[in-house]
């Protein structure tokens, strides 16, 4: 779960941010950041497992180290997902009211309250829907529909 739940997300964040800037190192760094530690740890742990046997698992479980390791990995994974949500989701509201110099933009007010509030709200809605057992394909379709309709009427 560490590699698929945490390291893959970190590698995806690094690769995606570089790829969005048009840098060819994006996919290359994704593959390196994910595969090099993954293959190295698999090889080392397979070798250690063969040499040490199953007694190591019993000692790690009894010492309580397994729970600490799992807890730490989940915290790192949540931090990466939160950072990706804030930096990768871009929602702006181009609506403004007033005229001339007294013109006030709604996006400016929202950013003054809390920067990246709209990405946080959208991430929270998706998370809530996933907790309610809504299918991911339905959520993606709904997000596309809301985005298209919101852009069409001038909300986004």
| Number of DSSP E strands | 2
Helix amount: over 70%
Span between termini: 37 Å
SS element count, helices? 7
Could you report the average pLDDT, rounded to the nearest whole number? 86
Largest sheet: 2 strands, antiparallel
What structural category characterises the helix and strand content? mainly alpha
Are there runs of 5+ residues with pLDDT below 50, and where? Answer: none
Query: Oligomerization state of this entry?
Result: single chain
Number of domains: 2
Q: What is the C-alpha radius of gyration, as a whole number of Å?
A: 22 Å
Q: Enumerate the strands of the largest sheet in spatial order, edge to edge or round the barrel.
A: 1-2
What would the principal axes of the Cα set say about the shape? elongated
What pattern of helices and strands is seen along the backbone?
Answer: HHHHEEHHH
- Approximately what portion of the residues adopt beta-strand conformation? under 5%
């Amino acid at each position: 779960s560490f590699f698929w739940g945490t390291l893959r997300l970190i590698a995806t964040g690094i690769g995606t941010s570089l790829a969005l800037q048009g840098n060819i190192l994006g996919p290359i760094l994704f593959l390196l950041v994910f595969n090099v530690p993954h293959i190295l740890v698999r090889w080392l742990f397979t070798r250690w497992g063969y040499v040490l046997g199953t007694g190591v698992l019993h000692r790690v479980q009894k010492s309580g180290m397994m729970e600490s390791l799992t807890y730490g990995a989940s915290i790192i994974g949540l931090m990466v997902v939160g950072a990706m949500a804030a930096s990768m989701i871009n929602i702006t509201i181009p609506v403004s009211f007033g005229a001339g110099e007294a013109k006030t933009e709604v996006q400016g007010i929202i950013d003054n309250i809390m920067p990246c509030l709209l990405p946080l709200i959208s991430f929270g809605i998706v998370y809530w829907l996933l907790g309610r057992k809504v299918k991911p394909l339905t959520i993606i379709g709904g997000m596309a529909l809301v985005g298209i309709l919101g852009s069409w009427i001038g909300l986004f």
